Amino acid sequence: MKEKSQEIDNFLVGLLHDVVSKLVKEVKMNKNVNTKSGPNDLVTNFDKSTEKGIVEIIKEHYPDSSVVSEEGFGDDIKSMSGLVFFVDPIDGTMNFVKCHDSFASMVGVYLDGEPFVGAIINVMQDKIYHGGPELGVFENDQRLSEPINQELKEGLVVISGPMVLKNYLNTQDVVGKSSGIRIFGCAGIVFEHLLTGKEIIYMSYLKPWDLAAGRVLCESLGLSVARVDEKPVDMLQSQVVIAGTKKAVSEVLKTVKI
Ligand code: 2AM
Ligand code: CA
Ligand code: CA
Ligand code: CA
User: Fold this and answer.
1) Fold category of 2-143 in CATH
2) What is the pTM assigned to this prediction?
């Protein structure tokens, strides 16, 4: 299985580098922007074209796999059996539209429901975070070491803006117990920050493609990924997730009120 995960890891690194070289050219171009569920939920022509390209290449290389993706080019799956690729072509679409640098492309791969390989590319910095439980986690070619298991009071937290503003699930108490809050509007960039120890908690409502790659990488590097209701994480559902150091995640689970 290690050989298979290494092969998929190499495949994802090549695929996301190709995506980046195109997106960097497109970031300053006029974008065709549409709304989805509301005025802050955007999709552009580049989200769609990027996803279409990624899904086609995955299907060409792994024809027996399933693909779950945000903008509708993937499959509708009911089970996690076999090889499942989760694709978020542009994570942080609002940032992309506003020409902020914090956006990413992400692919997370699961084998029979278990985290297998993940890759997140920070497009504007051309840094790719990739690996899996059998490989370890890398920033480009550099192996990352496990972040220090800090307590909540020792580190910064990231919690989605709307959740904190409404004190949803008592999240303002979580912020009060920490070193402070940062908000980036891009799940992939926050996962990058957890892997490199810049922040120690990420709490947000995440869809499967927002979570898939980050969960693989966090768990492969000794970080915890839990559901706020402490049920097992379900990759076929959206859920409120708390990711971060083991100590801080356990403190957040005791602080939130569900
Ligand atoms: P996206 O840019 O791929 O849609 C977690 O907050 C993730 O949710 C973000 O990385 C972003 O991914 C998405 N998101 C942020 N604001 C959103 C909104 N208002 N509606 C829907 N999805 C949103
Ligand atoms: Ca979106
Ligand atoms: Ca996303
Ligand atoms: Ca997206």
Assistant:
1) Fructose-1,6-Bisphosphatase; Chain A, domain 1 (3.30.540)
2) 0.98
